[in-house]
Amino acid sequence: MVFFLNRGYRVIAHDRRGHGRSAQVATGHDMDHYADDLVDQVAHLGLKNAIHVGHSTGGGEVTRYVARHGESRVQKAVLIAAVPSIMVKTTANPGGTSKEVFDGLQAQVATNRAQFHLDLPTGPFYGFNRSSAKVSEGVIRNWWRPGMMGSAKAHYDGIVAFSQTDFTPDLTRMSVPTLVMHGDDDQIVPYADSGLLSAKLLKNGSLKTYKGFPHGMPTTQAETINADLLAFLKS
User: Fold this and answer.
1) Catalytic pick among 19, 33, 55, 186
2) Rounded CA gap, 5 and 13, in Å?
3) Tell me: the pLDDT tens digits for 196-206?
4) Rounded to the nearest 5 degrees, what angle is found at the Cα of 112, between the Cα atoms of 109 and 113?
5) What are the C-alpha distances in Å from 38 to residues 66, 119, 182, 191, 198?
6) Do residues 74 and 177 make contact, with C-beta atoms less than 8 angstroms apart?
7) Percent of the chain with pLDDT over 70
8) Is 215 annotated in the active site?
C-alpha cells in the first residue's frame, strides 16, 4: 500500500466480513455477500474510476463484484494468484483440486486453526517449503496474526466460498481491462486451472506469468509485482 501511496494513488484496503477488524457475523460468508459488501463500501466512499486489485480469494471477490454490480464505477481490475475460474474438481472442471482437499482444510480450521494458520504460511503459501526459498519468520508471523484475529466460522465457510464458486460466467461478463498475474509455482491456486483459464475467458484480459513465483508473491516478490502492477495502472 505504501508503494502506491508514495506514487500519488489513493489506496483503500478493506477487511472482508468475519476477517481482520470487521464484524464477526455468523452468516453471509459467500461470494455474493462479499461482492455486496464491497458495493456498499464503494458507494459509501463515493468511489469512481476505481482499480480493483484482488489477491487469491480477493480476486474472486473482485470478479463477482464487477459481474454482479456492473462496471460504472470500475476503471480496471487485477487478479493476482486469484481463485477464478473455479478451484474444485468437477465433471466440467476435471483439472481442478479434489473436494477432499478442501474438506481437509475445513477440518483443520475446526479442530486447530492456530496450527493451521501457522502451517500454511510456513509451507506452501509463500513457497517456503521449497529448498531455494529465503524464509522470513516475520512474514509467517504476520500471516498468523490476522488469521487469528478473524472468525473461525468465517474462515470455515470461506473455504467453500473460494473453492466451490464457479466464476466462469462472471469472467465472461467482464469487459474492463483486466490483468491476470499468476506464478507458475503456486501451490495454493494451481496456475493451469486458474490464471491461464481466467485470462482466456476475459473479453479484455491479459496474462502475466511469473516463473517460480509462489501464491504469496505480492509479499515475497513485492518489488516485481508492484512494478508490473504500476505499469498496468498507468497504461
Assistant:
1) 186
2) 12
3) 999 999 999 99
4) 45
5) 10, 30, 24, 26, 21
6) no
7) 100
8) yes
Active site residue 29: no
Contact 198, 79 (CB under 8 A): yes
The dihedral built from the CA positions of residue 91, 95, 156 and 182, taken in this order, carries a sign that is negative
Q: State pLDDT tens for residues 109-138.
A: 999 999 999 999 999 999 999 999 999 999
CATH number reported for the structural domain that contains residue 89 in this entry = 3.40.50.1820
For 17, the grid coordinates are 466480513
Full residue range of the structural domain in which residue 16 is found? 2-234
Catalytic residue, chosen from 56, 85, 151, 163, is 56
**Structural domain tally of the chain?**
1
Determine the pLDDT at residue 106.
97
Q: Decide if 103 is catalytic.
A: no
pLDDT in tens, 42-89: 999 999 999 999 999 999 999 999 999 999 999 999 999 999 999 999
Tell me how far apart the alpha carbons of residues 92 and 105 are, in angstroms, rounded to a whole number: 23
33, 55, 117, 215: the active-site residue: 215
Q: Sheet containing 74-80: give its strands across.
A: 50-55, 74-80, 178-183, 205-210
Q: Reduced to 3 states, what is the DSSP secondary structure of residue 181?
A: strand
Q: What mean pLDDT do residues 173-194 have?
A: 95
